[in-house]
């Protein structure tokens, strides 16, 4: 596969072989001509060829003989031919979409190097908001969009965009679904969202899948297909508006948190019992939160059960998820302390 891609890249460069070869030949021919007719050193010969081809007009290095002027005439004619050939090739390649294909090849090479990124399928209203939030958090993001207009709009904001159909396995593999941390599906059609979730789950069972659903029936089917989280914009908007009416201060606090330097982060512990036991034996039997980074422990999750406002001392266990609130510096201190038992991300 890599050999095929290398040959394809060479094929894109091969189209410029003729103009470049002619230009090199013209330089050698002109330098040799001045060398034999005028007796100049190689530096002066090459300099004279350069200013002649580029029509800079600095003047002759020395007064030319009749033979030297013939050489100059041939260089000018050859230079005009090379320029004309290059312009023709440039126009032909532009009409054939050469530069678009070259940009796609660059993007594919970039995608192959991406690790632990987030894939967004669809750059509609929901996808735009998600992409902007991830950009503000400096998370590596790749957008899959089949609408050229939306693709251009996303690229103008600095996003990497793959122009393709997200429902195709080939597209998801090209987007690096096997190396991503999460895949967010925001296509306008519930059937398409379901198709993407099924394909992504089959390609990478450990990838976290978040999907958009228009109604409860679609949401239940997406969960059955393997989506880790399903969000309905209408339901979410309704809940937010109801919360604003009943608990306005709490909603204002969440909005304030989004614009501050504080973050909520999950720390997932490894499933390996021996690693957890070793950590507990080397440290305390229980994990004393108040002495570890000054971040606030909001909740813990064990075996699917979420426990809010836990005790100050928590006994860690395999597969536990710790949810902290704090600044990036505070969260980093927690991360350093727990690095031996945290799930390794690619």
TrEMBL record:
GO biological process: potassium ion transport
Zinc is among the record's keywords: no
Transmembrane segments: 12-34, 46-64, 71-91
Signal peptide: none
InterPro entries per the UniProt record, alphabetical: K_chnl_dom, NAD(P)-bd_dom_sf, RCK_N, Trk_Ktr_HKT_K-transport
RCK N-terminal domain segment(s): 115-231
Name of this protein: RCK N-terminal domain-containing protein
UniProt keyword Zinc present: no
Keyword annotations from UniProtKB, A to Z: Membrane, Transmembrane, Transmembrane helix
Subcellular location field: Cell membrane
Top-level taxon of origin: Bacteria
Record organism: Prochlorococcus marinus (strain NATL1A)
Membrane topology reported for the UniProt record: Multi-pass membrane protein
GO cellular component, one term: plasma membrane
């Amino acid at each position: 596969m890599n050999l095929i891609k290398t040959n394809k890249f060479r094929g894109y460069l091969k189209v410029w072989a003729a103009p470049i070869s002619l230009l090199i030949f013209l330089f050698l021919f002109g330098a040799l001509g001045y060398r034999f007719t005028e007796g100049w050193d190689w530096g002066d010969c090459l300099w004279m060829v350069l200013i002649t081809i580029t029509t800079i007009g600095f003047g002759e290095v020395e007064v030319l003989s009749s033979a030297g002027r013939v050489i100059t005439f041939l260089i000018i004619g050859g230079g005009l031919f090379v320029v004309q050939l290059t312009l023709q090739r440039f126009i032909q390649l532009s009409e054939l979409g050469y530069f678009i294909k070259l940009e796609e090849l660059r993007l594919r090479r970039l995608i192959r190097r991406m690790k632990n990124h987030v894939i967004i399928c669809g750059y509609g209203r929901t996808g735009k908001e998600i992409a902007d939030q991830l950009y503000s958090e400096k998370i590596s993001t790749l957008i899959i969009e089949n609408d050229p207009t939306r693709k251009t709009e996303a690229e103008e904001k600095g996003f990497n965009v793959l122009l393709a159909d997200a429902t195709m396995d080939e597209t998801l593999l090209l987007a690096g679904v096997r190396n991503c941390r999460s895949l967010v599906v925001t296509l306008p059609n519930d059937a398409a969202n379901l198709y993407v979730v099924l394909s992504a789950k089959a390609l990478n069972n450990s990838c976290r899948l978040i999907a958009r659903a228009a109604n409860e029936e679609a949401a239940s089917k997406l969960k059955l297909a393997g989506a880790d989280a399903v969000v309905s914009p209408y339901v979410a908007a309704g809940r937010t508006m109801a919360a604003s009416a009943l608990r306005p201060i709490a909603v204002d606090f969440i909005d304030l948190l989004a614009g501050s330097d504080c973050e909520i982060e999950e720390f997932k512990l490894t499933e390996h019992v021996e690693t957890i036991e070793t950590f507990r034996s080397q440290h305390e039997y229980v994990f004393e939160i108040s002495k570890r980074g000054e971040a606030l422990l909001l909740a813990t999750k064990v075996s699917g059960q979420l426990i809010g406002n836990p005790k100050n001392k928590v006994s860690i266990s395999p597969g536990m998820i710790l949810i902290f609130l704090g600044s990036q510096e505070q969260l980093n201190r927690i991360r350093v302390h727990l690095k031996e038992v945290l799930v390794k991300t690619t």
